[in-house]
Amino acid sequence: MRLLPDERLLVSSMMTFHFEAAHNNSPQTDAPKAGRPLPHSSGWLARALSISLVQVLITVTVGFYWHRCWSGSSLLTLNSLEMVIH
User: Fold this and answer.
1) Phi, psi dihedral angles at 4 (to 5 degrees)
2) End-to-end CA distance of the chain
């Protein structure tokens, strides 16, 4: 039986959840239990938004310079390939 990529992802996710649930209840672990309420953290929204903003700025800046510096060069040009569907 051959699984599609989506099915493999679903099976591996289910196995991971099962493994975590089975090992999270053991008395040997000092890790916090899953589903517990999160502790209060002041300013978490501002930190999350600022980190997201920095990620967007980095992505846009790198994309701008990438296009500016390397827009003319290419390892593979699709124009040289024949069209399969006319």
Assistant:
1) -75, 160
2) 37
Report the amino acid identity of residue 50: S
Convert the pLDDT of each residue in 21-60 to its tens digit: 777 665 555 666 667 787 888 999 999 999 999 999 999 9
Torsion of CA 54, 57, 59, 60, to 10 degrees: 170
CA dist., res. 69 & res. 71, Å (int): 6
Residue 31's pLDDT is: 65
Tell me how far CA of residue 35 lies from CA of 24, 32, 38, 41, 45, in angstroms: 11, 9, 9, 17, 21
How far apart are alpha carbons 42 and 46 in whole angstroms? 9
- For residues 20 and 34, is the Cβ–Cβ distance under 8 A? yes
Tokens representing 16 are: 């991971």
- The pTM assigned to this predicted structure is 0.47
